[in-house]
Write a structure and sequence with these properties.
- The chain has 355 residues and is of the alpha/beta class.
- It has 2 domains: 5-163, HAD superfamily/HAD-like (Rossmann fold), CATH 3.40.50; 168-341, Ribosomal Protein S5, domain 2.
- It is 32% helix and 22% strand.
- It has 8 helices and 15 strands.
- It has helices spanning 36-45, 66-82, 132-141, 155-163, 199-212, 229-247, 296-309, 322-341; strands at 5-8, 49-55, 89-93, 126-129, 144-147, 168-174, 178-185, 193-195, 215-222, 258-262, 265-272, 278-282, 289-290, 293-294, 312-318.
- The protein has a 5-stranded parallel β-sheet. A 4-stranded mixed β-sheet has the order 6-7-9-8, with helices on one face.
- Helix 1 runs parallel beside helix 4 (155-163).
- Its cofactor is Mg(2+); Zn(2+).
């Protein structure tokens, strides 16, 4: 079975690389890079295997005796192992550039056994390092690379990038009145496919996806021969449930509002993905329908969504044109949703410790 493997550089990536001779040849030169230990541990806990790969110029020569390398190196490994970080392999090239060896990074001699068919999951494996040679090694191995350090990423950012789960959900609801299927990808901006049988409603739902910065597929079959009530209501319920399911444990989200002008309308939306459903809706319409959508169902849609999503929504707008009034509400909600669902950290945004 192919394995997710991280090939991580040592000096300048796991431990600090000293100026001068660039050699960690004494214990007093051994310093870890910030947050490297919790990051590596989290990567390991998320199914990544770890391989250390490093160039050590002249290791074993008079300029860099092996004992001088071994003492701080073994201490480093002992500290890492005490925290649960064990490397499946440690690959060391002892040559200099002038030796023109076949193993020095970015050449692939040292990693040949990891490139055997059926060993390496190339789509989900990485080289992490602070030098161009690390990026070139990844290219030569046909896997991805992440640059660490200056003009690169820190260990917190690397951890978040490589352990972030796909925020996706598929929810369906089947009643005597409707059949609703909704699939959502919160971190994918692409064309949505929406068909509820109500053209104007489809257009409004598309505004939520576009302005929310995500993609969704919605298919609804409802009793439109009666009216649009059940179709709109059940779509709101299932959409709320799908959003809530896709958010998962909500770690790192922003939670919260947005003001959006649209021609003569000014729409305001505040959202709290709080686990406490509530709706405060204020909008006045001039007609019973906008397109083929009943205007009285617009508030009902957002109420159904709020309860399906277990969230507090304050949504209001003022205007003269019913089309603009409606569209401003959906766009404002979409923009607020974009802010609220954005993942920017690794903590739950609540003093209670949960939401």
């Amino acid at each position: 079975m192919n394995q997710k493997i991280i090939f991580v550089d040592r000096d300048g990536t796991i431990i600090k690389e000293p100026a001068g001779n660039f050699q960690i040849d004494r214990i007093d030169k051994l310093f870890f890079e910030p947050n490297v230990i919790p990051a590596l541990l989290e990567l390991k806990n998320n199914g990544y295997r770890l391989v250390m790969i490093t160039n050590q110029d002249g290791l074993g020569s008079d300029k860099f005796p092996k004992i001088n390398f071994d003492v701080p190196h073994n201490l480093m490994l002992q500290i890492l192992e005490s925290q649960g970080i064990i490397f499946d392999d440690i690959l060391i090239c002892p040559h200099t550039t002038e030796d023109n060896c076949s193993c020095r990074k970015p050449k692939t001699k040292m990693v040949e056994k990891w490139l055997i068919e059926g060993v390496l999951d190339k789509e989900n494996s990485y080289v992490i390092g602070d030098r161009l040679s690390d990026m070139q090694l990844a290219y030569n191995m046909n896997i991805k690379s992440i640059k660490y350090g200056i003009k690169g990423k820190n260990w917190n950012e690397i951890q978040i990038e490589l352990t972030k789960t796909e925020r996706h959900a598929l929810v369906h609801r089947h009643t005597k009145e409707t059949k609703v299927f909704i699939e959502i990808w919160l971190d994918v901006e692409s064309k949505s496919n929406i068909n509820t049988g109500i053209g104007f409603f489809d257009h409004m739902l598309e505004q939520i996806a576009i302005h929310g910065g995500f993609c969704m597929n919605i298919t609804v079959t409802g009793d439109l021969y009666i009216d649009d009530h059940h179709t709109v209501e059940d779509t709101g319920i299932v959409l709320g449930q799908a959003l809530l399911k896709a958010l998962g444990n909500k770690i790192g989200i922003n939670r919260y509002g947005f003001i959006l002008p649209m021609d003569e309308c000014l729409a305001r939306c505040a959202l709290d993905i709080s686990g406490r459903p509530y709706i405060d809706f204020k909008a006045k319409f001039n007609h019973q329908h906008v397109g083929d959508l009943s205007t009285e169902m617009i508030e009902h849609f957002f109420k159904s969504l709020a309860y399906g999503m277990m969230s507090t929504i304050h949504l209001k707008t003022k205007g003269k044109n019913d089309h603009h009034i409606t569209e401003s509400l959906f766009k404002a909600f979409g923009r607020t949703l974009r802010q609220a669902i954005r993942s920017e950290g690794n903590a739950i945004p609540s003093s209670k410790g949960y939401i």
